[in-house]
Amino acid sequence: xxxxxxxxxxxxxxxxxxxxxxxxxxxxxxxxxxxxxxxxxxxxxxxxxxxxxxxxxxxxxxxxxxxxxxxxxxxxxxxxxxxxxxxxxxxxxxxxxxxxxxxxxxxx
Length: 108
Prior knowledge:
Layout: H1 4-19, H2 25-51, H3 58-71, H4 75-87, H5 93-104
Helix pairs in contact: 1-2, 2-3, 2-5, 3-4, 4-5
């Protein structure tokens, strides 16, 4: 689901962020695996929401994606998901879907 380039981006970011804290390679690898799995799970939930018109949960799941990205040190990518939570009350369903599709495309 997440392309290899983005998985490598996550791995490098985690390695850079946590190796300076003295965290070992095996723990870093575990963090990479858990982060990717969590991210993939949330992306799937978002994709399911986008198939229908009930987007009440969209803000929650994109906020979770933002949190995962912040935790792994990908702050700029996380900012891309910050606005979706706020769009739920100000934009049409179609506008929200379009923005969300564009944001999750970074993982393809």
